[in-house]
């Protein structure tokens, strides 16, 4: 069996792992596949070959992972097997979710009394912090995504959401999710020097949108001006409070507000603005205040860095677009006006 680890690949920010059964005789393939999967996967599990599976086994598994966040994307093609994560496996502490997009084949997922049929074209979200049996029969092809628990757990309602979730991939965010998964390998290949999280973030964002749509939040909230106003006010307050943080992002802001990023952007559009515009305005306001408090000898570069800008070029452009004058001219005029007022008071 081929088992290629490429942790030292400097051309990609991903950790790559591939496995194939092609190099082994038909009799060896199943136990070689079972051994590799049970040892190579980041959690404890057991694979079984049952009578309804294809005995002339073949398998291929290719993973691209972001080791910093734990997110991963995999392409799998194999002859079918039963995957079990029983109570004795849960002591490993693994608690992430797996998103399964079944391209071909059929099967079922069972957790306790819940039984979810799996059909080609279906999207399924599975919680691997719980016991589960996942059975795929005959030849199957699927795309798999590992989703860190912290990214989506807060969007689950409770025990009723602990069962395997089937996502509607025919409309709305589910349709976008399905298409994004299909395009992910191509995007990864063409964006070799893009940070992995930029490619992975849309997956969790779309899952969150699917969860909220399932709960009925999106339609009701999108029609409520008062709700959009509340989100907008909260966003403005947080942006002004944290605008100096260079790591601030729309995604972090949405999580702090308890909503999905797409809903945040919708609330901002309702007020005819955007996250980028609000952040830039808040940073310029902070920079203006710092320039006035520092005095005539204020360092433009230092103020730019203190207020979240990457340098003077970005800062100068944003300052002029917001206030219509340069930062140095702003300081000059402000202190000239202050001196005139002092003279008048005398």
UniProtKB/TrEMBL annotation:
Coiled coil: none
Pfam families cross-referenced by the UniProt entry: HTH_18
Keyword DNA repair among UniProt keywords: no
Keywords: DNA-binding, Transcription, Transcription regulation
SMART domains, per the entry: HTH_ARAC
Superkingdom, natural source: Bacteria
Domain HTH araC/xylS-type residues, every copy: 233-333
PANTHER family assigned: ARAC-FAMILY TRANSCRIPTIONAL REGULATOR, TRANSCRIPTIONAL REGULATORY PROTEIN
Designated name of the protein: Helix-turn-helix transcriptional regulator
């Amino acid at each position: 069996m081929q088992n290629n680890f490429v942790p030292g690949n400097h051309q990609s920010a991903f950790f790559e792992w591939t496995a194939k059964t092609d190099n082994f005789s038909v009799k060896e393939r199943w136990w070689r596949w079972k051994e590799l999967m049970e040892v190579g996967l980041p959690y404890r599990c057991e694979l079984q070959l049952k009578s309804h599976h294809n005995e002339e086994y073949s398998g291929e598994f290719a993973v691209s992972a972001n080791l910093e966040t734990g997110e991963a994307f995999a392409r799998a093609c194999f002859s079918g097997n039963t995957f079990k994560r029983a109570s004795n496996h849960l002591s490993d502490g693994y608690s992430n979710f797996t998103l399964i997009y079944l391209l071909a084949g059929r099967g079922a997922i069972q957790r306790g009394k819940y039984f979810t049929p799996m059909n080609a074209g279906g999207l399924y979200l599975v919680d691997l912090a719980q016991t589960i049996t996942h059975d795929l029969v005959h030849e199957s092809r699927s795309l798999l995504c590992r989703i860190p628990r912290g990214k989506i757990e807060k969007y689950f309602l409770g025990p009723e959401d602990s069962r395997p979730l089937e996502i509607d991939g025919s409309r709305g965010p589910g349709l976008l999710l399905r298409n994004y998964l299909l395009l992910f390998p191509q995007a990864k290949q063409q964006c070799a020097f893009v940070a992995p999280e930029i490619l992975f973030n849309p997956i969790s964002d779309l899952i969150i949108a699917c969860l909220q749509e399932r709960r009925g939040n999106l339609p009701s909230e999108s029609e409520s001006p008062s709700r959009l106003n509340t989100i907008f006010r909260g966003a403005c307050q947080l942006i002004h409070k944290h605008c100096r943080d260079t790591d601030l992002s729309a995604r972090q802001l949405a999580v702090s507000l308890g909503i999905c990023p797409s809903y945040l952007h919708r609330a901002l559009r309702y007020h005819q603005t955007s996250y980028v515009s609000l952040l830039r305005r808040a940073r310029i306001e902070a920079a203006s205040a710092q320039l006035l408090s520092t005095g005539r000898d204020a360092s433009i570069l230092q103020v730019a860095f203190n207020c979240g800008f990457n340098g003077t070029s970005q800062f100068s452009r944003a300052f002029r677009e917001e206030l219509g004058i340069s930062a140095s001219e702003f300081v000059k005029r402000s202190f000239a006006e202050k001196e005139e007022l002092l003279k008048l008071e005398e």
